[in-house]
Amino acid sequence: QVQLAESGGGVVEPGGSLSLSCAATPATYTTYCLGWFRQAPGKNREVVAQITNIGAKLYSDSVKGRFIVSRENGRNTLHMEMTNLKPEETAVYFCAADLGRRGPRPSDAVVTGPCRFERWGQGILVNVSS
């Protein structure tokens, strides 16, 4: 079983920057897409950015030009650099992994483009406030 662990959240002022990381263990476990989702209070979880194992990236329109997603395949690690953060982006940010399975879809799986995210981290809080 692959486990995901996020790090790097915290409090940042509006307009500031913050970096998030996610480590998938064991590092040798093959993950296809890796992605970031977020869930603000009272709202549904939404995709923020995703990246396939060959580097194809997809961003939500709201973060294009401000967030950069990257991954280190050898270490099975996902990163996201966030700049010019806005108060409305305060949320719990979740790391997610596509394990390559294409059988019956689990109830908590989310499909975005070519990716099917089935494994989730615990989430980490990003609080954008002054």
Characterise the protein shown here.
With 130 residues, the protein is mainly beta. It is 0% helix and 48% strand. The protein is globular, with a radius of gyration of 14 Å. The model has no long low-confidence stretch (mean pLDDT 94).
Separation of the first and last Cα atoms: 40 Å
Secondary-structure element string: EEEEEEEEEEEEE
Number of strands: 13
Quaternary structure of the protein: single chain
Indicate the overall shape: globular
Our Rg estimate from Cα atoms comes to: 14 Å
| Low-pLDDT runs | none
| Helix amount | under 10%
Global structural class: mainly beta
Largest sheet: 7 strands, mixed
Number of helices: 0
Strand percentage, roughly? over 45%
Mean pLDDT: 94
Summarize the structure.
0% of the residues lie in helices and 48% in strands. Strands 2, 4, 5, 6, 9, 12 and 13 form a seven-stranded mixed sheet that branches. Strands 1-3-8-7 form a four-stranded antiparallel sheet, with no helix packed on it. The chain is built from no helices and 13 strands.
